[in-house]
UniProtKB/TrEMBL annotation:
<dbReference type="Pfam" id="PF00392">
    <property type="entry name" value="GntR"/>
</dbReference>
<feature type="domain" description="HTH gntR-type">
    <location>
        <begin position="22"/>
        <end position="90"/>
    </location>
</feature>
<dbReference type="GO" id="GO:0030170">
    <property type="term" value="F:pyridoxal phosphate binding"/>
</dbReference>
<dbReference type="GO" id="GO:0003700">
    <property type="term" value="F:DNA-binding transcription factor activity"/>
</dbReference>
<dbReference type="InterPro" id="IPR036388">
    <property type="entry name" value="WH-like_DNA-bd_sf"/>
</dbReference>
<keyword id="KW-0804">Transcription</keyword>
<dbReference type="InterPro" id="IPR015424">
    <property type="entry name" value="PyrdxlP-dep_Trfase"/>
</dbReference>
<dbReference type="InterPro" id="IPR051446">
    <property type="entry name" value="HTH_trans_reg/aminotransferase"/>
</dbReference>
<dbReference type="InterPro" id="IPR036390">
    <property type="entry name" value="WH_DNA-bd_sf"/>
</dbReference>
<keyword id="KW-0238">DNA-binding</keyword>
<dbReference type="Pfam" id="PF00155">
    <property type="entry name" value="Aminotran_1_2"/>
</dbReference>
<dbReference type="InterPro" id="IPR004839">
    <property type="entry name" value="Aminotransferase_I/II_large"/>
</dbReference>
<keyword id="KW-0805">Transcription regulation</keyword>
<comment type="similarity">
    <text>In the C-terminal section; belongs to the class-I pyridoxal-phosphate-dependent aminotransferase family.</text>
</comment>
<dbReference type="InterPro" id="IPR000524">
    <property type="entry name" value="Tscrpt_reg_HTH_GntR"/>
</dbReference>
<dbReference type="GO" id="GO:0003677">
    <property type="term" value="F:DNA binding"/>
</dbReference>
<dbReference type="InterPro" id="IPR015422">
    <property type="entry name" value="PyrdxlP-dep_Trfase_small"/>
</dbReference>
Length: 490
């Protein structure tokens, strides 16, 4: 995508490269040069005005001026009065001689870093844990007892292994939603489940109603299908029924996408009564409901979790329920599922067959072995998460008392409001202090949550302590120099 003139977008692309040693202006020049000639900054693309880029990165305008001067000296950009600074034609013929000394390979997304300890960037962009130790034992047992039988078959199972579908059905039934194996389709993670449902229901121009804020990936998935997203705010019990009614009546959506169990990013738990209200409203207006319950690790000492929203749906309504073991067991175990009526499950299975003929068989067999123990495994993990959430709250209260948040009922992150601050600007300052965070704009493009951060607590105690210390130093720097002028970051 051409980022011409978009200061906020360019800041997000290059911000992680401003860490390290050397003059800040040179690091900025190197970071911009790494994007020049790509689809991000093609020949002729206009760079943001100096002041706007400085505001987006929370640095001085003099630093940006020096960086642009450096890029002009390398022959990568040119400036003309009235036209601003643009990528030079010569940049399209390859890197200049001076540019060849730059490190290659920048293209790594901000969302693909891993927390690596002191002295490196601590990435708080993920809310995931390492794999459970029980995985290794189960995999060894699977290889010796189940693998020979699995190898006797062709290996294509578009609907999923029968034994896995049986155990997923049992899991739903135990949660209060009676289910048969014929109502289950196994997917390669919850992400693919949402993608398959999107393919089946969305056409260009169709409207999807979502919670506001919401999971960032849904904007990409629904937008790629040509869908139009309409957000509905939350209260403590979940998505607001009065505003949901208005959205259904005004927009006639094709689909409602919700996360009733430990909503991402707020961690809120939709009440049983609210689930019934939402299901009945969707049935009244003929809207398909997709509920994503991938963040459903349970703490025995925490609140009780109501049955899935589908358990409250009137007869004849369409509710699809998505689940996964990736959050509860291990992110590398890419097995998810969709629970739907038999006719819908058959349609989904056809879409799944076209996508990849079936999810990896060994991963499915491993998941089938783990599912009977899922409550035991997730409760142990949730107890650890609860302790880390408490520690994170204590650290923030001590070192960042101005920040505002409510302790979530579940999930693995805090949804924090920064007083009088654009979180995108703070995120750039935090990067220079060695910690990476996700600003609220990624989870609500309307701008209503631009002053929010999602800060996961799914890390060890030393990492959390170090991360909050770095965040506090970044906050002190931003407050010391004051917020940048109120100039639009576009």
């Amino acid at each position: 995508m051409d980022r011409s003139g978009d200061a906020a977008a360019l800041a997000e692309l290059i911000g992680s490269r401003l860490t390290g040693r050397g003059g800040l202006y040179r690091r900025l020049a190197d970071a911009i040069a790494a994007q020049i000639g790509s689809s991000e900054l093609p020949v002729g693309a206009r760079l943001p005005a100096e002041r706007r880029l400085a505001d987006a990165l929370a640095i001085s305008r003099a630093t940006v001026v020096a960086a642009y001067d450096e890029l002009r000296a390398r022959g990568l950009v040119e400036s003309r009065r009235g036209s601003g600074t643009t990528v030079a034609r010569a940049a399209g013929r390859g890197r200049s001689r001076a540019d060849k000394r730059m490190p290659l390979g920048y293209g790594e997304s901000l969302f693909h870093r891993i927390a690596v300890g002191a002295g490196e960037v601590i990435s708080l962009t993920y809310a995931v844990d390492p794999g459970l130790p029980e995985l290794a034992d189960e995999l060894i047992e699977l290889a010796s007892s189940d693998l020979p039988l699995l190898l006797d078959h062709v290996g294509y199972h578009p609907r999923g292994l029968q034994v896995l579908r049986e155990r997923i059905a049992e899991h739903f039934t135990e949660s209060g939603l009676p289910t048969s194996p014929d109502e289950i389709v196994v997917t390669t993670g919850a992400h693919q489940a949402i993608a398959l449902v999107t393919q089946m229901y969305l056409r260009s121009g169709a409207t999807v109603v979502i919670e506001q804020p919401s999971w960032p990936g849904c904007f990409d998935l629904f937008g790629a299908a040509g869908g139009r997203v309409v957000g509905v705010p939350l209260d403590d019990a979940g998505i607001r029924p009065d505003l949901l009614t208005a959205a259904f009546a005004s927009h006639e959506p094709a689909m409602l996408f919700v996360m009733p169990t430990f909503h991402n990013p707020t961690g809120r738990l939709m009440s049983a009564n609210r689930r019934r209200q939402v299901a009945e409203l969707a049935a009244k207006y003929g809207v398909v409901v997709v509920e994503d319950n991938a963040y459903s690790a349970w703490d025995p000492a925490g609140p009780s979790i109501p049955p899935p929203l589908a358990a409250y749906a009137p007869d004849g309504s369409e509710v699809l329920t998505i689940g996964s073991v990736s959050k509860a067991v291990w992110g590398g175990l890419r097995i998810g599922w969709i629970r739907a009526s038999r006719p819908l499950a058959e349609r989904l299975a056809r879409h799944k067959a076209l996508a990849d003929l079936g999810s990896p068989v060994i991963d499915q067999a491993l998941t089938a072995r783990l599912l009977p123990r899922l409550t035991e495994l997730t409760s142990a993990r949730a107890r650890v998460a609860t302790a880390r959430k408490k520690l994170m709250g204590q650290l923030l209260t001590e070192r960042l008392p101005e920040w505002e948040w409510s302790s979530p009922k579940g999930g693995s992150a805090l949804w924090i409001r920064l007083p009088d601050t654009d979180a995108r600007v703070f995120a750039q300052v935090a990067l220079r202090h060695g910690v990476e965070v996700v600003a609220g704009r990624a989870m609500d493009p309307t701008g209503e949550h631009d002053d929010y951060l999602r800060v996961p607590f799914a890390y060890s105690e030393p990492v959390l302590d170090d991360a909050v210390d770095r965040l506090a130093r970044a906050w002190q720097e931003l407050r010391r120099h004051g917020p940048p002028p109120a100039v639009p970051l576009v």
